[in-house]
Amino acid sequence: LFHWYWSDGLFQYDTAGIYCALAWATAHGELYRPLLSADGYGGTRYMPLFFLVHAALLRLFTAPVTSGCLWLQCSVALAVGSLIALLRQQQVPWRVALPLGGWLLATSVYQEPSLELRCDYLAAGLVAWALWQLRRGAWIATSLLLSLAFFTKLTSLYALAVALAWLWMRGQRRRAGQLL
To answer: How far is CA 113 from CA 67, 118, 126, in A?
Structure first.
């Protein structure tokens, strides 16, 4: 799909361009350009984790689209792996968990955004792994993963609300407070 679509080697949609520009600027020593400067407008609402990793990959591979594709597919693999792990944690057999976890790759939900550079898969994967850790009672790992998800996408705060509600309903109010 990448080779067929990308005859010009550019990402689709403006969000991908913003993420790529943020990674490029960061790789060249400027994290979050000033709101107004001699270079123009630099403000953004995007959280840093996704483009920080892309910036690190840019230092290795130098090509923004190549490193962006690699990073996006790694984040998709993280999301798919977390979905499979959550299904297995619920005692779903492997023969069902693998196709259900992999369904994402066969849908337009994956195929169109795979032409972009977005943080959504990374945030979803981190949230799902945090919920997996929560069910195991690994509080520090849950906190760390939810923090990483927040530094990927602001809306991942909803996962914290879900985790707190789940702990509260289970009578683990002290744990809910610690997680908060």
So the answer is: 16, 8, 18
User: Is residue 147 within a helix (H) or strand (E), and if so which, with residue range?
Assistant: helix 139-150
Tell me whether residue 11 is exposed, middle or buried, using C-beta atoms within 10 angstroms of its C-beta: 0 to 12, 13 to 18, 19 or more: buried
Residues 6 or more apart whose CB falls under 8 angstroms from that of 81 comprise: 101, 125
Q: How far apart are CA 104 and CA 82, in angstroms?
A: 12
149 vs 135: CA distance, rounded Å: 17
Q: DSSP secondary-structure letter at 38?
A: T
pLDDT digits 0-9 by tens, 45-60: 889 999 999 999 998 8
Residue 24: other Cβ atoms inside 10 A: 17
d(CA 123, CA 94): 24
Tell me the backbone φ, ψ of residue 137, rounded to 5 degrees: 85, 15
E strand or H helix that includes residue 69? helix 64-89
Decide: helix, strand or coil at residue 116: coil
User: What's the whole-model pTM score?
Assistant: 0.87
Q: How far is CA 153 from CA 7, 66, 145, 169, in A?
A: 30, 23, 12, 26
Neighbours of 59 (CB within 10 A): 11
